[in-house]
Amino acid sequence: MRYRLEKEARERGEEPEADGEASARGFTNEERAAIVEVAIEQAIRRGEFKDLPGAGKPIPGLGATHDPDWWIRRKIERERLTGLGPPALTLRTEFAELDQRLDALRRESDVREYLEDFNRRVIEARRQLLGGPPVVTPTVDVDERVAQWSERQDAAARRAAEQDAREAPPQRRWRLRIRRPG
Asked: How far is CA 130 from CA 52, 116, 180, in A?
């Protein structure tokens, strides 16, 4: 790159700078652009940009609506990351999966604790003024959700009991047969 820059300087009729002088002052924007351009050209010649996923195809999901956080949302979905991203997005996905998360818990005290923590995080995210998408996730009524969780647990227990009853072999009744002398 240095030789190319010196050649371009000679072509413009300028005197190429000495190594110590160029490194002491840093690179100009044009020099940086030239360095980057040469690096890209070399990578193309080596074939490092061939067979990239999505090459020649439009980026899916762009253009429908303006979402400034489209790239982070796409990264989170593609990498299946959890717990990362702006609180507005993480709380929204957690709210959508709330019943499944609650069904994984076994004790009512754990369900109450989880719901109270969820409400606390929603309120805390609403108070922060860090920018990003607005927090539109609602808080939940803890008693109502605990009652719904309890009903789902009871229904699941009934279904399991019915399933066990259907799969159990029928009990046979053996009668004592007495032969009468004939």
From this structure: 35, 23, 94
DSSP structural state of residue 168: S
Q: The whole model's pTM is what? A: 0.49
CA distance 145 to 114: 11
* Cβ-Cβ contacts under 8 Å for 148 (sequence gap 6 or more): 99
Q: In whole angstroms, give the CA distance from residue 106 to residue 117.
A: 17
Q: Number of folded domains in the chain?
A: 2
Number of residues assigned to the chain: 182
Say how far apart CA 63 and CA 58 lie, in whole Å. Answer: 10
The verdict on 37 and 119 lying in the same domain is no
Tokens of 61: 């999901």
Q: Which two tokens stand for residue 166?
A: 């259907």
The domain in which residue 138 lies consists of 70-166
- What is residue 82's three-state secondary structure? coil
Q: Are 146 and 111 in contact (CB under 8 A)?
A: yes
pLDDT tens per residue, range 72-97: 777 878 887 776 677 888 888 889 99
> Nearest CA to 139 among 163, 158, 123?
123
The letter for the amino acid at 28 is T
The tokens describing 134, both together, are 């607005």
